[in-house]
Amino acid sequence: MLNFRNTIFIKSATEKNGRPEKTLPEVLFVGRSNVGKSSLLNALTDNSHLAFTSSKPGHTRLLNYYSVDQKLYFVDAPGYGFAKGSKEGWIDFGKMMEDYFVNNSSLRVVLFLLDGRRQPTVEDIDLYRFFKATNVPFILIATKSDKLNQSAKAKLTRQWQNCFEDDKLSILPVSIQNRQSISSLAATIERWVK
Ligand SMILES: Nc1nc2c(ncn2[C@@H]2O[C@H](COP(=O)(O)OP(=O)(O)OP(=O)(O)O)[C@@H](O)[C@H]2O)c(=O)[nH]1
Ligand SMILES: [Mg+2]
Fold it and tell me: What is the Cα–Cα distance from 38 to 94, expressed in whole angstroms?
């Protein structure tokens, strides 16, 4: 059993040679800005002070590596779909992620987050196609499920299956306010990294 509470920040990186020296299996958190990536990382590790979260999109700017129980890395990515202008220090998301995926044999699974209240965007669909085309395993997570009523939850799968043109697509609803959804995701992650 992994002790998710035993998680520490290791480093921030923008490129391949910025990765931690020690190689461990990796779980990547990816999705639109503000979807709840950093919040989910904090919920899984039961540490609200670990990753910075913000109600303003565009908070996480680099690939942030966290070591979980010294057995795997959680990698928190910046969100996409949020134009911040050409502010200094703003790195190219596409380029950085491309670098991340190239020859990365450590990656075990991607936590692909979408806001449960929103329809998938063109960027979400592009990323989905990229994962399918390159055989990157992912878990599609509908975040902020506490904001969904029963009827919205019931419709979600069908709606997203239509958007992604995939009638086998399975979706895991998760809320940081629902411990059970977090524990069941933690158990799923453990199975992927075993
Ligand atoms: N109601 C609710 N709010 C959530 C949940 N998860 C995250 N949030 C809120 O969503 C906002 C964005 O959360 P972040 O975790 O910073 O999002 P992010 O995807 O890391 O954003 P970037 O780093 O900008 O890409 C914050 O205000 C969180 O409190 C959830 O399960 N339920
Ligand atoms: Mg973040």
Answer: 19
Torsion of the alpha carbons at 160, 161, 164 and 166, rounded to the nearest 10: 160
Q: Give yes or no for residue 144 CB within 6 A of ligand 1.
A: yes
DSSP secondary structure letters along 21-90: SS---EEEEEEBTTSSHHHHHHHHHT-TTSS---SSS----SEEEEEETTTEEEEEPPPBS----S-TT-
72: Cα separation from own chain's centroid: 15
For the chain, which domains are there? 7-193 (3.40.50.300)
Distance 55 CA to ligand 1 centre (A): 7
Which two tokens mark 188? 């799923």
Measured CA distances, 143 to 32, 64, 114, 139 (Å): 11, 20, 6, 12
Q: Is the CB of 59 under 6 A from ligand 1?
A: yes
Q: pLDDT per residue over 87-101, tens digit each?
A: 544 567 777 888 888
pTM of the model: 0.93
Low-confidence ranges of the chain (pLDDT < 70): 57-60, 82-91
